[in-house]
Amino acid sequence: MKILVCISKTPDTTAKIAFTDNNRKFAAEGVQWIINPYDEWYALVRAIELKEKDPSIVLHLITVAAADADAVIRKALALGGDEAIRVNADSQDSFYIAAQIAGVARDGSYDIIFTGKETIDYNGSSVGGMIAGLLDLPYVSLAAKFDLAGQTATVVREVEGGEETEEVSLPVVVSCQKGMAEQRIPNMKGIMGARSKPLKVLEPVQVEPLTEIVSFELPPAKKGVKMIPAENAEELIRLLHEEAKVI
Amino acid sequence: MWKCGNVEMWKCGNVEMWKCGNVEMNGVGIVIYTFTYFHISTLINFFEFKIIKPMSVLIFIDHTDGHFKKTTYEALSYGVALARQMAIPAEGVLLGTVTEDISALGKYGIQKVHQVKNESLNALDPQVYIRIIAAIAESAKATVIVFSHNSSGKAIAPGLSARLNAGLVTGAIALPDTSKGFLVKKNVFSGKAFATVSIKSPVKIISLNPNAYPIASGEGSAELLNEQITPETSRVKLKSTSKSSGEIPLTEAEVVVSGGRGMKGPENWGPIEELAKLLHAATACSRPVADAGWRPHGEHVGQTGIAIAPNLYLAIGISGAIQHLAGVNRSKIIAVINKDPEAPFFKSADYGIVGDAFEILPKLIQAVKKLRGLA
Predict the structure, then answer these.
(1) In which domain, by residue range, is B37 found?
(2) Residue B10: what pLDDT?
(3) Distance, in angstroms, between B252 CA and closest chain A CA?
(4) Domain total of chain B
């Protein structure tokens, strides 16, 4: 069995968000890059758990990014996985990224393709569904649990106000969220081992992006907090009703 | 004279003349007709006929347990406003069966609802849905397809985008600017910034953030079209569904009451639940609370949990770490109650109270009861 986990690099959760180039580019200078938490904690760790249970599973990681993502890929390999693929392209268009991954997966005969439910930078929540669409595979989104029995997966997905338990035969594309697995810290053995794992670099296939970010902006600053003395707490309800008009 | 679609033919003596409307579309969906007159013999060699239908905005009608979701009304209001802006009709697409009156959706301004009335479609399989919606989008000449950015939209819209080669913007927060191209504003960096995204493909897909666009309704009735499409066999089997104790879904709630570690233990959630009930609010919690098992994971809001954008987020005993803010900073109003005056959350709040949650909560409950005429 072969599993492919899609990895994206994102700014650290505490990174300062600012823009340059007339608000057209994210100000990346000095920013600490991490593996997108949904890709790492949920998609990758769950795939590693499956491989620990069944060592015959071949686990590949893939990212679509320029060479500056190699450090993040090595971090992911330190957690687990047999080898990594980097498609050498830089794009913010989900369709372009999905088409690159689909291009690799089309020949790779993967049984399961895991993605995080979204990235914490562009919040697209799109790449997994697009890969499934391009490869015409079943897609289970927002998975909170994933279990395998032979060629059948049982997936619990979170929907508004509840959960759905679904059964799907492989191959399948799954987007992962909280509940799938717990965050792990790579150990020294993993970090040393990651250095010698193969990292294949592929050139991108020719695809036209369908969207383009033309500008960024920051939300207007909050006006400042209105403090209410604790002994007069009822006043909060009056303000929320009469001033803010939200209750 | 004989007429079929946009192609007209008539006879002048022994000569058959044809008038053929060639249709072009520009980026905002205005149809320009140019006419050519020519003899039938040249036509056979050089021209193909197409029956021209006006373009439309197609809106996905999401439902659960036989009822339309609240986000459906938001998507309808948004899609209809967009269709008016583009001077084209708005239509709905509904897969599966509902117990509600479908024609009443005309109140939101749509003229037609394409329904595939098949109970198997009440369970959502994106692969099956995509084929059907793609077929209906094609026959309805949909130039924009609108979803809600909820669990259904996230499941279907990306695959549909891939199938139709249609650019997708997820999590839109405002109507597109169609004056120069097609520009859609969305949240990025987990609510810490906005991006304006240009969709460059002829067909465009937008998914609208829940609680980002007001519901607007008037008078009207929609024509129901029963689409005869047989769904293919699904490879995803829905085994069971479970409801989280019947309250309002977190992402749809207009008011959210949330508790953090300051609540000290799961046994203390009574007042939060009571206040939430009085405010018709959903309950939420911070990550440490979910991780400790005090509350279900489905209530965790934040960077790695659920991102919400209610009208009011009332946070009790939550310090407001940056990861928590990433899930709630799109809330219109944030009110914070914390015993620590240095809690970072106060910096992002609109209203704040420094004090003991266990003393303040009963006062708030009393005040809401009074407001609602219950005490």
Answers:
(1) 2-46
(2) 43
(3) 8
(4) 3
> With an 8 Å Cβ cutoff, are B198 and A233 in contact?
no
**What integer is the mean pLDDT of B189-206?**
96
Residue A106 burial (CB count, 10 A): 13
Query: Which residue type is seen at A80?
Result: G
- Interchain proximity B353–A229, CB inside 8 Å: yes
| Per-residue pLDDT at B2 | 38
Q: What is the pLDDT of residue A223?
A: 84
Say if residue B305's pLDDT is above 60.
Answer: yes
B194 and B76 in a common domain: yes
The rounded radius of gyration (Å) of the Cα atoms in chain A is 21
CA A79, CA A42: separation in Å to the nearest integer? 12
Q: Does the beta carbon of A228 lie under 8 angstroms from any beta carbon of chain B?
A: yes
Instruction: Show residues of chain A in contact with B256, CB under 8 Å.
Output: none
Whether chain B has a CB inside 8 Å of the CB on A154: the answer is yes
Measured CA to CA, the distance from residue B273 to residue B141 in angstroms comes to 48
Cβ pairs A/B, distance under 8 A: 278
End-to-end Cα spacing for chain A: 54
Q: What is the mean pLDDT of residues B253-273?
A: 96
At residue B39, the pLDDT reads 52
Give mean pLDDT, residues B49-56.
66
**What's the maximum distance between 2 C-alpha atoms anywhere in chain A?**
68
CATH number, domain containing residue B283:
3.40.50.1220
Task: Answer whether residue A57 shows pLDDT above 60.
Answer: yes
My answer on whether B87 and B178 are in the same domain is: yes
The pTM is what?
A: 0.88
- Looking at the fold, whether B68 and B217 belong to one and the same domain comes out as yes
In a domain, B137, yes or no: yes
CB contact under 8 A, B161 and A95: yes
Chain B residues close to A176, C-beta within 8 Å: none
**Alpha-helix residue ranges (DSSP H) falling in A80-212:** 94-108, 127-135, 188-196
Give residues with Cβ within 8 angstroms of A22, minimum separation 6: A215
Chain B positions in Cβ-Cβ contact with residue A227 (cut-off 8 Å): 346, 351-354
Tell me which chain A residue has its CA closest to the CA of residue B299. A161
> Is A125 within 8 Å of B160 when comparing Cβ atoms?
no
Of A126, A210, A230, the CB nearest to B201: A210
Same domain, B99 and B137: yes
Residue B192 — pLDDT band, cuts 50, 70, 90? Answer: very high
Taking CA–CA distances from A117, the nearest residue in chain B reads: B154
Structure tokens, B298: 């489905």
Give the three-state DSSP class for B94. strand
Residue B130 identity (one-letter amino acid): I
The whole-angstrom separation of Cα A19 and Cα A199 is 31
- Per CATH, the homologous superfamily of domain A2-217 is HUPs (3.40.50.620)
